[in-house]
Write a structure and sequence with these properties.
alpha/beta, Rossmann fold, 2 domains, globular, two-stranded antiparallel ribbon
């Protein structure tokens, strides 16, 4: 789901999962956003052909990090929900973004220490709506579970605002809470519950979705 917005040339989106609760972050930087932050040497070129793919990736990564640090605005309710859940439930991040991009976002938001596991694009071959990234996040949490009883997918809640994310969560056998950041409620009906903002979500509400 969109946990934050990017106030600049590019739009950044976030997808998150609560594995009773695992928050998933996924940020995408459009090509026009990258070009807007490209270095002068790159902007002055009439064609991108002289640049190797590796150079473009390196330039994108550098300016992406700078842009994220300077222009991220976290949506209302996100920080308070994460901090409240982390006191009672194991949290993990699973995202279609690269690991260094995820780390930058979470550090900028002051949330990285609340998560016990992070799964990024490098860790899975198939993205949403496939369930792989959700299941890998859960496996990472279970690997750190010391009480001997693994967390079952049915005891996990995914927070999403995309149709693909909701389908992936349901295919993973998890519950899903949808937020209308990106789509109206009528397009998110496959979720177990739909809210307008995370400001209204509490620990008790999240846990009730698994009962």
């Amino acid at each position: 789901m969109r946990l934050a917005e990017y106030r600049g040339a590019a739009i950044a989106t976030v997808n998150d999962v609560v594995s009773v609760s695992a928050l998933l972050s996924s940020w995408n930087l459009p090509h026009q956003g990258f070009l807007a932050y490209a270095p002068p040497a790159l902007q002055s070129k009439s064609s991108l052909s002289p640049f190797l793919p590796s150079e473009l990736i390196e330039h994108k990564a550098v300016y992406y990090q700078e842009a994220i640090c300077n222009h991220v605005a976290i949506f209302p309710g996100v920080k308070s929900l994460v901090t409240d859940l982390a006191q009672n439930l194991p949290l993990a991040v699973a995202s279609g973004a690269l690991r260094n991009e995820i780390d930058t976002i979470l550090i900028t938001a002051g949330l990285i220490n609340y998560f016990k596991a992070i799964v990024s694009a490098e860790d899975v071959e198939r993205g949403k709506p496939e369930p792989d990234i959700f299941l890998k996040a859960l496996a990472a949490l279970n690997a750190q579970n010391n009480d001997g009883k693994p967390i079952d997918p049915a005891d996990c809640v995914v927070i999403e605002d995309s149709k693909e994310g909701i389908r992936g969560a349901r295919r993973a056998g998890m519950k899903c809470l949808a937020v209308t950041n990106s789509h109206p409620a009528e397009l998110l009906t496959d979720a177990n519950a739909v809210v307008k903002t995370l400001e209204t979500v509490t620990l008790n509400f999240v846990e009730s979705l698994c009962q």
